[in-house]
Amino acid sequence: MKLFAIKSDSTGEKVLGYLLYYEKPEQFYIELPDDTDEWETPLLLSSFIKRGQRTVNSYWSRVWVQQRIVPPDRQNIGAVLKENGLEKYDEFALLLLAEGRCAQDDCYIESMEEIELPQRILDRFSIRVEEAVPLDDGQMLVFFRNGEARKCNIKKLCSDRRFVPILQSSKLFFAVQIQTDGYGITWGEDLDIDAERLYREGTAVPLSIRDFQSYAAHCVTDTAGACKLLQCSRQNISDLVKRGKLHPLHASAAGALFLLSELRQRLWQ
Known about the structure:
- There is one protein chain.
- With 269 residues, the protein is of the alpha+beta class.
- It has three domains: 2-121, no CATH class; 126-207, NE0471 N-terminal domain-like (2-Layer Sandwich), CATH 3.30.2020; 213-268, Multidrug-efflux Transporter Regulator, Chain: A, Domain 2, CATH 1.10.1660.10.
- The chain is 36% helix and 26% strand.
- The protein has helices at residues 43-50, 58-66, 77-83, 91-98, 119-125, 154-157, 164-168, 170-173, 195-201, 209-219, 223-230, 234-242, 260-268, and strands spanning 2-8, 12-22, 27-31, 55-56, 107-111, 129-134, 139-144, 149-153, 177-178, 184-186, 192-194, 203-205, 220-222, 250-252, 255-259.
- The strands form four sheets. A five-stranded antiparallel beta sheet has the order 4-3-2-1-5. It has a four-stranded antiparallel beta sheet with strand order 6-7-8-12. A three-stranded antiparallel beta sheet has the order 9-10-11.
- Strand 6 and strand 7 form a beta hairpin.
- The protein is elongated.
């Protein structure tokens, strides 16, 4: 991860935000300090402060970056890249070349180390998402990095109509993903809920990620385990599934996962 302080010529050394760049997924995130005023920050970032949000998601963080670099559709982009020693269009490399500056404001970026981050920002990192388990009726069980778990009503959190298809389809809802470094949960570009909001508005559950892992380790098995317990072949397992006698938690070309409790019931019948 690369880390930068966002500063402004008009505000001196005051840090207006922190830009984080994750190299492998090529994603940006911006963290806004609690003492940053909406009038000090660029318009795009100030809109988050007005809404009470201090974490800018990857979609809008990338938009902020793109406002500060040469666009990929520029007519002479090939010549620009060659002149700057770049073999391909690279948002991060172009951002560094420009030092984060653009014509719209007087902001710029300055490299820094994670140990230089203020404690409040580090506290936010402790409530990033470790795991998210979709439940029935639009609920989500979310485990956080600090060891806590909260049950979140996604229907209430996603009042935006863009989320309607997701909330109306269990298949889409259960396709939820964890954002890079646990910044939140997402269903695609700009369809996400940040970790801080999930933590703030979720209901605390007396359960830890270790409890969840222990449950998975002791209560779930794969196809090979099912064959061993029922003393049958993979073909027999496949036949039971087709006839609706067994209900896999998850199935793929490589195999399936089953609840041990359901397999034991087969032994008792």
